[in-house]
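ugh ok fine here u go
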Amino acid sequence: MNFLRSSKINVEILSDTGIKLAHFSDLHLAGKRDSRGLARFETLLNAIIDSGCSHIVITGDLFNSNDPDDWAVVKEVLQSKGLYSWDKATLIPGNHDLINLEEEMRVYNALNPDPRTRKKRLRQKMHEFCSVFRELITGDDTVTGFPYIKVLQYGDVTVSFVAVNTVFPWNNADNPLGARGNVSRGELRALFDPLVDKALRDSFVIGVFHHAYRIYGTDVLLDQAFDWTMELKNRDELLQTMQRLNAQVLLHGHFHRFQTYTAAGIKVVNGGSFSYNPRRYSEIVINSDRNFEQRFVDI
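structure:
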């Protein structure tokens, strides 16, 4: 993967002296006619705006479908709140956004021994997602893919978002529920480009992805089985890449718990699930000395 072709670095100079970041995940809206869910979404955004947040991050699974017509509703809501711009919102897809499990499990797809068609469907859906939300990814009408990087400067504080895709194709043996994650080697290689180091230099780096780095991790067999169906397969490779980029915070969703933990000295924040609790989000305040504070806010 050629980083310059698949990703874009933009720099925006802002006037604030610090940044307050809001993060939530897994909306799992029922569709564009889900008036109740969309009303709750607007209520959450209103509270975030009133709190003075400078930027929001949504880590995937917008709807329980992979229909671009549904995604456009989220775009419209963000536009109505003045949040649909490159410097105010970062958004990535989850497995529900890119994989139609019912379609993949149909006999003519499930029994097809050639994985290329599954990869092609996922690439096409990713292209559609990046096309719908292109302004949040590139800041203009350009359609690009993952990984992508944003560099925002708030006074003396520079904050960089490194967004990677962790969704990979359905497979009846390796990904039977479509919920396991994996970051392609091409994406990881792209993040080793010298231009990445140059762009991120002296900034507060935040890694953004959908799948959880940690789920249960217990000796209970039932939990281990659940872990396998949900796990991020090459999580250690992703973590090592984020360490190399000097990431200070990692944001994810997928596993529907509002929680924080540490991995290799990096703070990891699980944005939980809006569908479980639409009145909670994670807030991160980054100070001028590059120290930060995180808490879960109930509205």
